[in-house]
Design brief:
The complex is a heterodimer. Chain A is mainly β. Helix content of chain A is 0%, strand content 53%. In chain A, a hairpin with an 8-residue loop joins strand 9 and strand 10. Helices cover 0% and strands 63% of the residues of chain B. In chain B, strand 9 and strand 10 form a beta hairpin. Classes of the chains: A mainly beta, B mainly beta. At the A-B interface, strand 5, strand 9 and strand 10 of A face strand 4, strand 5, strand 9 and strand 10 of B.
Chain lengths: 113, 113
């Protein structure tokens, strides 16, 4: 099985722009979670989607949003980018809600200039 | 507020040494504790521990959980340069119609030849 695929791998944007990141989970996995990773804060939870519904949201401003499609693929969007949004954005999938193990993609490295 | 604390935050040892990484937690609605290894980008799953006192082993790596004292340790024996990575501890929780993983900030392990 293919692993979790995230695109693009790298992005450079300027302040005020918006960005959309994509995540394709492992085939058959229906739960997708997003995390922001920075050197100072570590991995911080953004949101989780299951069956196209957002089940949980972390403590991030409304500029961060996401969605999940019927094929379980997910996108996250960040509007009005700020310098502090520069980070590695990781997507993880798991088979269903009863499972604990999440499998991670390689991430999208976002740099905001 | 849920928290996962890892120590030390960084560690430099020589090849062949044995290391012990620590993870303590205060998480409501605990389900399990997971260890991940992050070398470049994608964290890769190592162990999941659910019950106290049962050691999980994989080659030179082993881990154990103490649910009474709320901590786990990850041991690596006969370290090799390929063990250099960030080791992440995460606690899986479930409650209030949601579930997720709360991560520690990681231990950055460097193995010198």
């Amino acid at each position: 099985k293919a692993g979790v695929t995230q695109t693009p791998r790298y992005l450079i944007k300027t302040r005020g722009q918006q960005v959309t990141l994509s995540c394709s989970p492992i085939s058959g996995h229906r739960s997708v979670s997003w995390y922001q990773q920075t050197p100072g804060q570590g991995l911080q939870f953004l949101f989780e989607y299951f069956s196209e519904t957002q089940r949980n949201k972390g403590n991030f401003p409304g500029r961060f949003s996401g969605r999940q499609f019927s094929n379980s693929r997910s996108e996250m969007n960040v509007s009005t980018l700020e310098l502090g949004d520069s980070a590695l954005y990781l997507c993880a999938s798991k088979e269903n809600l009863a499972k604990n193990i999440q499998y991670f993609g390689a991430g999208t490295r976002l740099s905001v200039l | 507020e849920d928290k996962v604390v890892q120590s030390p935050l960084s560690l430099v040892v020589h090849e062949g040494d044995t290391v012990t990484l620590n993870c303590s937690y205060e998480v409501t609605n605990f389900r399990s504790l997971l260890w991940y290894k992050q070398e470049k980008k994608a964290p890769t799953f190592l162990f999941m521990l659910t019950s106290s006192g049962i050691e999980k082993k994989s080659g030179r790596l082993s881990s154990i959980l103490d649910k009474k004292e709320l901590f786990s340790i990850l041991n690596i024996t006969a370290t090799q340069t390929g063990d250099s990575a960030v080791y992440l501890c995460a606690v899986a929780w479930s409650g209030g119609g949601a579930d997720g993983l709360t991560f520690g900030k990681g231990t950055h392990l460097i193995i010198q030849p």
